[in-house]
Amino acid sequence: MKIAIVIPTFNEAKNIVDLIGELLELNLDMDILVVDDNSPDGTAEIAKKSFKKNENIFVLLRQNKRGRGSACIDGFKYFLSNGKRYDCIFEMDADFSHDPKDISLFLEKIPKYDMLIGSRYLQKSKIINWSLNRRAFSKLANFYAGLLLRIPITDYTNGYRCYRYNVLKNVDFNFVKESGYIVLAEIAYQIFLKAYNIGEVPTLFINRKRGISNLNFREIWQAFKRITVLRFELLKNQFEN
Ligand SMILES: Nc1nc2c(ncn2[C@@H]2O[C@H](COP(=O)(O)OP(=O)(O)OP(=O)(O)O)[C@@H](O)[C@H]2O)c(=O)[nH]1
Ligand SMILES: [Mg+2]
After folding, report:
1. What value, to the nearest 5°, has the Cα angle with vertex 82 and ends 32 and 87?
2. Phi then psi dihedrals of residue 34, to 5 deg
């Protein structure tokens, strides 16, 4: 199976080289794209320099910080238009919250699905070192998204995912209005409305050990606002087409 992995980064200099190192150890037929928003800590430069001899690792440098979701979308577009044909495309965070070893779980299960989400809320899942606040907020966000969007999934906001190439090709990225974490829910909802088969795998989620968080209240507010109107906008759109 030929796979592609999109890794959005902002100030991940302390993580990116080790993470790509661990991914390479999996020995898969794999291209990796780091989408960096001109991180002040030099993430893009470090990634480029460290892997300049590896022709499967690419860095897409954007000039301004434009959000995790928009970085992933640019990454997906890159892999959907580079002339190569992948079986599936992954997205994952750079801060080791997403264990590279879980990729094998996704690959075992993806033949039966169109898209798989690494979930923190299945019986075999585990969350390590998350504060009570973060846990409560994540639960609330998932409850709210579930109430409005009603996709049969347990984790709307974990950015560890695997999409079949053709499924991602069918997503209308122009319709995605926000740029942060909520893009995860927007893309899942589009895929759900197209009647694709979405599954989940249990993941081990570990709170970041190195580097600083990019999550802030502005993003959280953006996410709640967007979830509230998303269902109605997309359903209306589907009805009109
Ligand atoms: N390119 C790009 N990547 C981003 C941006 N914001 C966050 N990221 C990356 O997206 C991933 C998730 O962001 P995190 O900062 O880990 O957010 P979080 O997981 O909610 O919060 P913590 O893990 O607690 O820090 C990481 O790989 C970040 O480097 C952004 O604006 N642009
Ligand atoms: Mg994180």
Report:
1. 65
2. -95, 125
Contact 79, 173 (CB under 8 A): no
Which residue range is the domain that position 40 belongs to? 2-240
Cβ atoms of 86 and 162 closer than 8 Å: no
In this predicted model, what pLDDT tens digit does every residue of 105-143 receive, in sequence order? 999 999 999 999 999 999 999 999 999 988 998 999 999
Q: What is the pLDDT of residue 151?
A: 96
Tokens 């998303």 found at: 230
Task: Tell which one of 15, 43, 68, 219 to mutate to probe ligand 1, the residue whose CB is within 8 A of the most ligand atoms.
Answer: 68
Cα–ligand 2 centroid distance for 241 (angstroms): 37
Residue closest by Cα to atom 24 of ligand 1: 213
Q: Which residue has the higher pLDDT, 168 or 230?
A: 168
- CA-CA distance, 220 to 44, in Å (whole number)? 26
93: left (phi over 0), alpha (psi -120 to 50) or beta: beta
**40-68 pLDDT, tens digit each:** 999 999 999 999 999 999 999 999 999 99
The whole-number pLDDT of residue 119 equals: 98
- The CATH number given to whatever domain includes residue 11 is 3.90.550.10
Domain tally, the chain: 1
CA of 24 to the centre of ligand 1 (A): 22
The owner of tokens 């690792």 is 57
pTM of the model: 0.95
Q: How far apart are CA 52 and CA 49, in angstroms?
A: 5
